[in-house]
Specification:
By secondary structure, chain A is mainly alpha-helical. Chain A has two domains: about 45 residues; about 230 residues, Orthogonal Bundle (MetI-like fold), CATH 1.10.3720.10. Chain A starts with a helix and ends with a helix. Classes of the chains: A mainly alpha (about 290), B mainly alpha (about 270).
Chain lengths: ~290, ~270
């Protein structure tokens, strides 16, 4: 009894002391690099180029130029996410059926760890006027096409870059799926399509949602690929922010676009974050 | 699944081909003695030699590696402390608040992180260059370390600490002999991911780097904007070999010892 008490006292002291120590750097990080930057973005969005307080940036955002930009940015992000999902889901599904699936998964992941810039650079060569893709088109008889600097090349390269990030969560969701459920569905007379639609898809929806989350938000804010592959023809919210900050030096307008991008991000997160109830439902299996 | 026949294999092969084609394409032309990525003339090592002769490029590579190692080390230290802070926090609301703060930088688009850090550094008066790049790399790597370490802490049974306390261990001993050895795999995973985050980052660095300092990604960007240089190809060949080696090494290191209690027995 006494020993328990002593231990409890010591434990409380231990926790408090070690907590206080380890708390400092991490809390500093939160204040300096999480809260302060967001605060600064919001603060700067209320100032114009000469440093006067104004709401003009927000008024500007609701003009046709920026609204068009936002809509097209969403449209591209949607296309990129859609095609990534279309390609990734079957890939993840087939991967889970392989023997050494973890190793194969790793092999899918390796390209995502090669520097993004290098991969993009490769496409400049691949899709160039004298590149292998055009050479192939020519032998097939279609003839040379301008592939680089088009919407197609932009979406293609983006999809290429995001595929591994989409495959990973879907693979994990599929891998957790209890195969007995599929057997049960088949035994009860459902065909392959019904089984997929009513059993596999709903149970892996959370994986799909996190896949969409990790693709859609970055896709909204791409700016390097737009320059290198789309040749400035595609302007996303990310490109606009980069331009305002680094080219025009209009931090106020850049911050305003950033504020909206953050708002969009929050909405997307709310829409795609796995809801607790669904989690609990699939967690029961374990 | 045999019913599906060859379709899965064909599909997967196609996906793998597309995923790896650009990388091998780059590497293939790094051996081209002609100056372009479309016409293979003859085999040469000259572009690799050019990489090693280019002093500027070597300095940039060194910069990149130094920033990556330092930022990974520091962010791992802070991240581990953060994970422990969050894990042993009594107040639930506070804990959840900290967890959401932690995930903000993980989901924020790079452009926003870059732009906001640019404002921050300019305001505080940190000169754009090595310091600002290192600080931002540390900042965006911390949350991933926390995410990797937290599950390990949750796995750890509290009875282990009780036992250590009963046996008379001090606070320091509990930390160094019980907690840290137990969460070691998480720490390594966090460090490794922080390293790759830093090596791979382009967007944030692009915002906060000044004129005098450059990392590999930023350098490749400015090189690629001016057109094709096979030196980049040679560089990508080197990077690919190193990256693939690191990842495969990591995979076999982490998958080999399947005894989770190993760290405790000592």
């Amino acid at each position: 009894m006494m020993r328990d008490l002593k231990r409890m006292v010591r434990r409380m002291k231990t926790n408090r002391a070690s907590l206080r120590l380890s708390m400092v750097p991490y809390s500093l990080w939160i204040i300096l690099f999480v809260i302060a930057p967001i605060g600064l973005i919001v603060y700067y969005s209320f100032f114009d180029l000469s440093g006067n307080f104004t709401f003009d940036n927000y008024k500007n955002f609701f003009t046709s130029v920026y609204l068009k930009l936002t809509v097209s940015s969403f449209w591209y992000a949607f296309l990129i996410t859609f095609f990534s999902l279309l390609i990734s889901y079957p890939t993840a599904y087939f991967l889970t059926k392989l023997k050494h699936k973890q190793l194969w998964l790793l092999l899918i992941i390796i390209p995502s760890w090669i520097n993004l810039l290098l991969k993009t650079y490769a496409f400049i060569g691949l899709m160039g006027l004298y590149g292998p893709v055009n050479a192939l088109l020519e032998t097939v008889g279609i003839g040379k096409q301008q592939i680089l600097f088009t919407d197609f090349s932009f979406v293609f390269v983006s999809v290429y870059i995001f595929i591994p990030f989409m495959i990973l969560p879907i693979f994990n969701a599929l891998d957790k799926l209890n195969p007995a459920l599929i057997d049960a569905s088949r035994d009860l007379g459902a065909n392959a399509w019904t089984t997929f639609r009513r059993v596999i898809w709903p149970l892996t929806l959370n994986g799909v949602k996190s896949g969409i989350q990790v693709v859609f938000i970055p896709a909204l804010s791409l700016f390097m690929i737009t320059r290198l592959i789309a040749g400035n023809k595609v302007i996303t919210l990310g490109t606009a922010i980069e331009q305002q900050f680094l080219v025009t030096q209009n931090w106020g307008m850049g911050s305003t676009i950033a504020v909206f991008l953050i708002l969009f991000m929050v909405v997307i997160l709310l829409l795609t974050t796995a809801n607790e109830r669904g989690m609990a439902g699939s967690g029961k299996k374990r | 699944m045999e019913r599906n026949g060859k379709l899965p294999k064909i599909y997967l092969t196609a996906v793998f081909l597309v995923l790896y084609a650009p990388i091998f394409y780059l590497i293939f032309y790094s051996f081209n003695s002609g100056g372009t990525m479309s016409h293979f003339e003859s085999f040469t090592w000259e572009h690799y030699a050019a990489v090693f002769e280019d002093k500027r490029l070597i300095i940039i590579v060194l910069n990149t590696v130094v920033v990556a190692l330092l930022s990974a080390l520091i962010s791992t230290a802070i991240g581990v402390m953060g994970a422990i802070t969050i894990h042993y926090m009594k107040n639930k609301a506070m804990r959840n608040a900290m967890l959401s703060m932690n995930s903000i930088l993980m989901v924020s688009p790079d452009v926003i992180i870059g732009a906001s850090f640019l404002i921050l550094f300019t305001l505080v008066g940190i000169k754009l260059g090595f310091a600002s790049v290192l600080l931002s790399h540390i900042a965006f790597s911390i949350p991933i370390v926390v995410i990797m370490v937290l599950p390990k802490l949750q796995e750890m049974s509290p009875t282990l600490i009780d036992a250590a306390l009963d046996l008379g261990a001090t606070r320091k001993e509990i930390m160094s002999r019980v907690i840290l050895p137990f969460i070691k795999p998480g720490i390594f995973a966090g460090f490794f991911l922080a390293l790759t985050y830093s090596l791979d980052d382009f967007a944030v660095t692009f915002f906060v780097t000044g004129n005098g300092f450059s990392t590999l990604s930023v350098e490749i960007y400015s090189m690629a904007r001016t057109g094709v240089t096979l030196t980049i190809n040679a560089l990508s060949g080197l990077i690919f070999v190193i990256t693939a080696g690191l990842i495969l090494g990591y995979y076999f290191l982490t998958n080999r010892p399947k005894t989770p209690a190993r760290g405790l027995k000592r």
